[in-house]
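Below is how a single chain appears once it has passed through the pipeline. First comes the sequence as given, then the structure the pipeline wrote out for it. We keep one example in the README because the format questions we get most often are answered faster by looking than by reading.
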Amino acid sequence: MTTHTALDLAAAVADQLADPHTAHLAPAIAHRQHLAHGLPGIALLHIERAATGLGPWQRAHGWLAAASREPLTSGPDSHPFYGAPAFAHALARAADHLPGAYQRALDTLDHQMTTDVNLRLDAAHRRIEAELLPARAEFDTIRGLAGYGAYLLRRNPDATVLRAVLDYCVRLTQPLTHNGELLPGWWTATGPSGRPDDRFPGGHANNGMAHGIGGVLALLALAARQGTLVNGHTEALGRILAWLDRWRENTGRGSTWPYWITRSDLNAGRLGPSVPRRPSWCYGTAGLARAQQLAALALGDVGRQVEAENALVAALTDPDQLKATTDNGLCHGFAGLAHVAARAADDAHPSTVGRLRAAIPALLAVVHPPGTDPAHAASTLIRDEERGPGFLDGAAGIALAVLAPSTATPPQSAWDACLLIA
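Resulting structure:
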């Protein structure tokens, strides 16, 4: 396997998704406004390729136009991965490279998003004052305020509304007394799906990057690294890190972190029996190791940085964890692991950077095995009935995720800002 074959796969996916009028879009068309599965996520592929000189801007314009052809959902029915905020992320990534382009549309979207975020913040603070537990979608990366913070931090780091989001994140990390019990402030009464679940009596604390406190940790860390801090910022980072330290497991190969903590875990003060789990971006060690690396960099904690990077190296090379990884997607597959590894390597300590980069070729070889025809592989990915051409699980995300690991060059469009890994 050479890195060129992974780039060939990315190019083939982009070529077969060149035109939204002729591309095979099922099931993406059913999720037109969704960043994860729909048209804005496919636009990100063409935006990044245009920003790096690998493709024409006209393809990006075409997908952005297709994504905005119908009215965009805003208000309470929208969220960072759906509707106007999802489209705004893609549009802003293009506008960064096209001075003066899309500014009127972005100004309108930003105004609407500020209104929506302030309403969400008001509701969240009222909830905290009433000593009620949060819904997962209040704070997480996909549907909640951490995801809005990701957009705001990249778009306008001096915005008052961003500071308000960070203030909320600090408050979220403070323990909450609920029905006379002291719980982490992000403890939810539901199962990981966000719905009541008999398998999670008493709820759970979600650790994930997509749906848990991992995303909040990453947002606070990224903001601190950019110099945007609020009162209690450092203490909030410390509280989340202390929580992850408490629940860290040692496999003999390296540290791992559970997807979530149940009420029985919390009451016992220890984890129940566990099996190796995939070390993905959305849940598990890869995303959490990157979040902790970012936090360590923000705090100047070299020891913690190296520990996080060693945990990521272990996750990327542990046969048991890799065996649990069963697809190639960005969210929880091998392409996502390669991209997280590349992003972490860009910031890594000299003692770990070589091992991080050395783990990448094997991951890319799984995504696109040597000798595989790129055009056929791209068509298979795009036409997959379950995952299709989309961003988070599908072909466009895989094509994006292999670019930085294949070239050792960071993304030029910040397409992955929505993942809170950079």
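The mean pLDDT is 95.

See the next section for the split statistics.
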